[in-house]
Amino acid sequence: MKIVNFQSSAGPRVGVLDGEYVVDVLAVHQAQALFSGEALAQLGNTISVIAHWESLRAGFEQAIARSAATGAGRLAVGQAGLLAPMIPSTILCSGSNYLSHNAEKANADTSGKEPEFFIKTGDCVVGPDAPIVLDRVLTQKLDGEVELAVVIGKPGRHIPKDRALEHVFGYTIVNDVTARDRQVRRRPDGSYWYELGRGKFFDSAAPLGPCITTADELGDPQNVMVRSWVNGELRQISSTSQMIWTVAELVHFFSVNVTLRPGMVIITGTPSGTAWSTDAELGGRWSGTDGMVPAKGYLQDGDRVVCEIDRIGRLENVVRESR
Fold it and tell me: How many CA atoms lie within 13 A of 131 on its CB side?
């Protein structure tokens, strides 16, 4: 199942993708009486739905079937106004998780040895078709990174690796937008160090969407393809099988620090092909594969960025320079 948020006349609402349509679950309920009063109160936002999914799932399945049969609560995707499928409180981020990305850039001391742990929050999130803001006061080197995002569904702390996927509700796409000239700093001796606060945390630094694909529908998270394009040029392509740390290992890793709760998101790193790889000034070394087009520079006003992951969909955003 693919969970979405969309803009209704009454405000943001939770729905489900059904082919080229969005099913307005609440509208179907109003026509067909699918949920109890207690369940209705749990439909207010995606995180609540995730937390109560065990009791709500049957109603969602019925809503899809009844909408297909009767047309109730059925909206064309293009007319629905998709929003970010959720606004997570916390986005736990793993950097340097693909060997191909490590090969194209200046590395930190921990690169390839342990996940590079940094954080974004819901303040960074924008949805499909929302602008990625290029703020020249903050950065001259804005870059994008397609990443598989893991949505936590079941709480836990010190989660063992062999039970980790039991805590995953589903998966979505994130573009880990980065201010490279804030992230990567050069020492006088020519070596580099990272400042992951200002380089990663800012307005529109986490486009998210277009949906959350439930874990059962996605299947093996280590066997999906990820891709990104800028203005139609293929910048990144890889399989999640190339991750250094698997989804299960990352769930375990982050759960050592904090209790993972429903609606938290873990992002899992990006493969090669970033604009950073063509920036020798910041230690970049192009290492793309056949079909990939090296970036001619960093993101600019008007650039269209598309991030795609199999069995989830395509997340599209246009860069807009702040005035």
Answer: 10
